[in-house]
Design goal:
The protein is an all-alpha fold and 261 residues long. It has nine helices and no strands. The chain is flat and about 75 Å long.
Length: 261
């Protein structure tokens, strides 16, 4: 029993310290409110003005935008976490290294989605088994019995159905996982609470530049369009600055203390 208690306390000690993961309900409510308002504004804009392109192009554009967001945040999170590991004191490096499990699991979950889509789609198309067709198993084969042929056919049909189910499930799983990874900055807060506030402005301004480069999604007047385009980056940046200041004033969390300097 003592061994289990020691192991439990060692596990808790290896996680983020209490003062670095404060239960600040105000920050959580403000972040949730900003997300809800952003979704409401985006839906209103799409419903109030006609789309610049068709619905399919709009959906594909949003999926591409989500993929770009994941790529930007993935690179930024890796750089940010690495910077924390390099700049921290030896004790802090060991602490940060012990907190990498959930960010790594987020990356693996995001990678599992496209891999499952590719694997299932390849199986459904028949490319995974060298282009074998279901009807090939009805043709006479020398040295193969009827039972063996039927069994092979049943296995192929079952594998095809399982691949189809996996394809149907993996598409929403990939989109949902990508959204969760973007919203949580790949669980960077598990390494340190300051990381999401430092990474979020980089993401929103990068997406703003992408949207300006690719053109508007709706045929809205310029004053309305650029108000909405700038509203997201400005609000997220202001929220990040406010969050950093609140963590410092209310909880004593600063970049210097985070690195143990």
């Amino acid at each position: 029993m003592a061994t289990l208690n020691d192991a439990f306390h060692a596990y808790v000690a290896a996680g983020p310290r209490r003062e670095e993961r404060p239960d600040d309900a105000v920050i959580a409510r403000v972040q949730l409110g900003r997300t809800i308002l952003g979704i409401i504004a985006a839906v209103w804009l799409v419903l109030a003005y006609p789309l610049s392109n068709g619905r399919e192009e709009f959906v594909l554009g949003k999926l591409v935008e989500l993929g770009i967001s994941c790529a930007i945040l993935l690179v930024a999170s890796i750089i940010g976490i690495t910077a924390f590991l390099v700049a921290g004191t030896p004790d802090r490096r060991r602490d940060f290294a012990g907190r990498l499990l959930r960010p790594v699991l987020s990356i693996l979950a995001l990678a599992a989605g496209p891999l499952a889509i590719w694997l299932s789609l390849t199986t459904v198309k028949g490319d995974l088994v060298g282009g074998a067709d279901l009807m090939d198993f009805f043709s006479p084969v020398v040295g193969r019995g009827i039972m063996c042929s039927l069994l092979s056919f049943a296995v192929l049909v079952l594998g095809w159905l399982l691949a189809l189910v996996l394809l149907i499930v993996s598409i929403p799983f990939t989109v949902l996982t990508a959204y969760v990874c973007v919203a949580s900055c790949f669980r960077a807060s598990d390494v340190h609470q300051l990381l999401p506030a430092l990474l979020s402005p980089l993401l929103v301004w990068s997406i703003f530049a992408f949207q300006v480069f690719t053109g508007p999604d709706v045929a809205a007047p310029p004053e309305v369009l650029y108000t909405f385009l700038l509203g997201g980056p400005l609000s997220v940046t202001a929220l990040s600055v406010w969050e950093v200041r609140r963590l410092r004033s209310r909880h004593g969390i600063t970049l210097r203390t985070a690195l143990g300097r």
